[in-house]
């Protein structure tokens, strides 16, 4: 059964969506509003650092007790909004609850910057992170929504270029297919107030400048559902059955399991898109505990 907190979040998102859907998107105004309402103070038990690698700003969070592992957390936001600061609910919780260190970069956003600038920034940041001494054997790629896209796409690119890979990838409600052609992309549109409009012409213009061809959208680095995962690390995913991106996770999971790839998928009922970013939800702790169980069961970390 859905928690009271999750019900309240769903209700609030539904109310905000009515205002958001009233006209053309103002991306700068959206970012400003998100930043103002998402001001999350750094907790006293967190050591906070602003770092810069490859010219990209990032937040580094560490705790008093460390398990020796580092998460590269890539935020979502449809490639047009989001920031490391707005994800402190989950990044600080990962430090407090499990002892991870977390590094979260602020990659360039659309529409000012077009695809593949988002992936290029994550790629360059990761390479600089390795050059700074970070051990990939102690590293996790993690992200939500479009950040999940970037985690998977980055891993595919690194594998293709023969570069070191992280030990595991964990993504929440990842956007693995940008074509808009999966059944849940339309079938769940009325249920998913958070990402409605993700496949509109306006989104494509913002992200790419023009609407790409279907062939362009099926390129594995754009839509990692179509990638070959041979040689990639294990993958953990979570998604809600009411999300537009439900099939993005289910179909990727089925593909991975058919190929004998180590993977796990946790499906919840009627939760909002990318709910693990809300650390105050009981369902978030449950999902992250399930992630930790997968890590331990498969002896990944």
General description of the model:
With 301 residues, this protein is an alpha/beta fold. Helices cover 38% and strands 16% of the residues. The protein has helices spanning 4-20, 27-37, 88-98, 117-131, 146-160, 183-187, 201-208, 214-217, 246-258, 282-297, and strands at 47-53, 56-62, 70-74, 101-105, 139-144, 168-172, 235-240, 263-268. It has an eight-stranded mixed β-sheet with strand order 1-2-4-3-5-6-7-8, sandwiched between helices. Helix 4 crosses helix 5 (146-160). The longest helix has 17 residues, at 4-20. The protein is globular, with a radius of gyration of 18 Å. The model has no long low-confidence stretch (mean pLDDT 95).
Keyword list:
301 residues, 10 helices, single chain
